[in-house]
Design a protein that fits this description.
Blueprint: H1 3-15, E1 19-23, E2 29-32, H2 50-53, H3 56-72, E3 74-83, E4 88-100, E5 106-114, H4 116-134, E6 138-142, E7 148-151, H5 153-159, H6 163-166, H7 181-192, E8 197-204, E9 210-221, E10 227-236, H8 238-271, H9 279-293, H10 298-310, H11 320-323, H12 331-338, H13 340-349, H14 355-362, H15 384-398, H16 410-419, H17 427-437, H18 453-458, H19 460-463, H20 473-486, E11 491-498, H21 500-507, H22 509-526, E12 531-535, E13 539-544, H23 552-555, E14 567-574, H24 583-593
Antiparallel strand pairs: 1-2, 1-5, 3-4, 4-5, 6-7, 6-10, 8-9, 9-10, 11-13, 11-14, 12-13
């Protein structure tokens, strides 16, 4: 070999990225290139045995490689070795083979190729494969057309499709009819646009059973940013979805039960007085109608409706003698009933789901001119939804009959809203209210007149004569007032009792009271469909919807008359022929009639 060729060969051997060596028949190193320098402990390499240079485990492996090459002419194995200078461990693919020199003496050539990086990559791939195989979530990869290239075992376990059955198929094989096509279109546009999509699916298994899964689907890109594949990671959440649905159902049931409980309190309040019956429902309905007309959102409309239902819940704390009083309130009584606003607010504000409602309710008796209560707010200081409820509440009060005042018709009520615009009411809300309230149908069965025996008993506190259980003259005055408009009653009979003062003087007041009580009881029993009133101490009035004949002789056959010189007389009046609005006018009409 010429010197030039020898020089080129030596350069090649030194530059090659592998450890290359030659061993004699005694395994001593004859030649080794510089790539091996960092793996040996000393500088005297040529002529040495591997066991003198390398750690025992590595040396034993390399010696075994040499022995196998001697026996078979060649050998190969994987050998791990320590890079002593850099304190790193490397993995080599080692090759050994017989070579002969000019003297035909056998020597062993070795090549050690460093495969550490490849080995590490292989280990990472194996590790990743183990992760994929043992992952508790489904993993799917597809090509750029969306056709499945790989699924892990958990996917098969979840869906029932094996790898062989699913490869090449599109994931739409799992599609149910639950999701609209727009959802899948959005998914595809997201991932083909290079973005990650996440969401939930209700899919179909191979068996036909449904299951829910949460999915993250992302594009896989090469170094140039080009999409090459798509990968989906999916977790079955069927049990979670159903459990959540059950919890939400139970929570909704709790909320509904809670709301019904509060509404029951409202019903209790309203059931205590015929006038307030249905008031909250009407205020809620009117409020929602006005809010819709004003362009409020659906949430706001629903909010004000719920506020309307509960706005008077604080009246549960109002004493019966005030709440049930079917007459005008005194100044002190009015102060007491005004407290229901703050009580309503306190009740609702302590409940997180009703805090927004509480703020609306607190202001439903304020006025635009700041003359309302409880805070005296005015103008835009009052929340809009409260401004709406103020009008709804007032409109229902205007159009509802009370025992001392007949309710207005719609035209009259709307006219009052106009008159109070910018005074009691917000002008813009008034305009919207007029548009919608002119079309409502008023309930015509709302009044404070007792219709049943139970309702009559509830009136006893205010209008029952304490001695006789008949009604008193104040109630007669109110009945005449309402009847002047409603025209329900047509017959009035006034029974006069004569010589009763003499009876009192002879037998005493207690016996006189007993006489009146027994006489009133007889009238109540004889005229069950009529109203019986005691007036002026010893006179009685019978008002009925039909004519009643008064048989005085028969009445005076009672046992109580036998020991007295009390006599009776009566006067009849047809209310269809006389316009009577109060007790004073009744007395004048009777005098004129007779």
């Amino acid at each position: 070999m010429s010197e030039e060729k020898k020089d080129l060969f030596e350069q090649f051997m030194e530059k090659i990225p592998a450890v290359i060596g030659i061993h004699d028949d005694e395994d001593r190193i004859v030649y080794i290139n510089s790539s091996a320098n960092s793996f040996f402990k000393n500088q005297s390499i040529v002529g040495s045995l591997l066991c003198d240079l390398l750690p025992k485990n590595t040396a034993d492996k390399a010696t075994q490689l040499l022995q196998e090459a001697k026996q078979h002419g060649h050998a190969k194995m994987i050998i791990e070795a320590e890079d002593l200078k850099n304190n790193k461990r490397h993995v080599f693919k080692a090759l050994a083979f017989n070579i002969k020199g000019k003297n035909q003496k056998v020597q062993i050539g070795t090549i050690y190729v460093n495969i550490t990086k490849q080995q590490e990559s292989t280990q990472e791939i194996l590790k990743l494969q183990q992760i994929l195989n043992n992952s508790p979530v489904s993993i799917v990869t597809t090509d750029i057309e969306g056709n499945i290239e790989y699924v892990n075992p958990f996917f098969s376990e979840t869906t029932g499709y094996s790898l062989e059955e699913i490869i090449g198929k599109n994931p739409r094989i799992l599609k149910s009819d639950f999701h609209p096509d727009e959802d899948y279109k959005e998914l595809w546009e997201t991932i083909t646009g290079g973005e990650v999509w996440n969401g939930t699916f209700r899919n179909i298994k191979k068996s036909g059973g449904e299951y829910w899964e949460s999915a993250i689907i992302a594009p896989v890109k090469d170094r140039n940013g080009k999409i090459t594949n798509f990968i989906g990671i999916k977790q079955e959440i069927t049990e979670h979805v159903y459990l959540k649905a059950q919890l939400l159902e139970k929570e909704e049931e709790k909320i509904q039960n809670f709301e019904k409980t509060l509404e029951s309190f409202v019903a209790i309040v309203e059931d205590r007085d015929a006038y307030t019956g249905g008031h909250s429902q009407r205020v809620a309905a009117y409020s929602k109608m006005i809010a819709q007309e004003m362009g409020c959102s659906d949430d706001e409309c629903e909010l004000i409706y719920r506020a309307g239902i509960l706005h008077d819940i604080g009246k549960i704390s109002t004493p019966d003698n005030i709440l049930l009083k079917p007459d005008k309130l005194s100044e002190l009584e009015y102060k007491l009933i005004k407290r229901h606003v703050e009580v309503s607010y306190t009740i609702l504000n302590t409940i997180p789901m009703y805090k927004e409602i509480a703020d609306i309710v607190l202001c439903h008796h304020e006025r635009y001119d700041a003359k309302g209560y409880p805070k005296g707010l005015g103008g835009d200081e009052i929340p809009l939804l409260s401004q709406i409820m103020i009008i709804a509440d007032a409109f229902d009060a205007m159009t509802t009959n009370r025992i001392y005042k007949i309710g207005k018709n719609i035209h009259e009520a709307l006219q009052e809203l106009r008159e109070q615009s910018s005074k009691q009411f917000h002008p813009e809300v008034v305009e919207s209210a007029i548009k919608v309230l002119q079309h409502v149908e008023l309930a015509n069965n709302i009044n404070q007149l007792p219709l049943t025996e139970l309702e009559k008993e509830r009136f006893a506190y205010f209008y029952r004569d304490q001695i006789t259980d008949a009604y008193n003259s104040k109630y007669l005055n109110n009945v005449l007032n309402q009847n002047s408009i409603k025209k329900e009653f047509i017959c009035v009979n006034t029974i006069y009792m004569h010589n009763f003062s003499t009876y009192n003087e002879k037998y005493g007041w207690a016996r006189g009271d007993l006489f009146l009580k027994k006489f009133a009881k007889e009238l109540i029993e004889r005229f069950p469909s009529s109203f019986i009133f005691r007036i002026h101490g010893d006179d009685f009035v019978i008002i009925g919807k039909s004519h009643a004949d008064i048989a005085l002789d028969d009445l005076m056959q009672q046992e109580i008359f036998k020991e007295s010189n009390i006599t009776l007389s009566y006067k009849h009046l047809d209310l269809r022929e006389n316009s009577i609005t109060n007790l004073h006018e009744l007395e004048i009409a009777i005098l004129k009639h007779n």
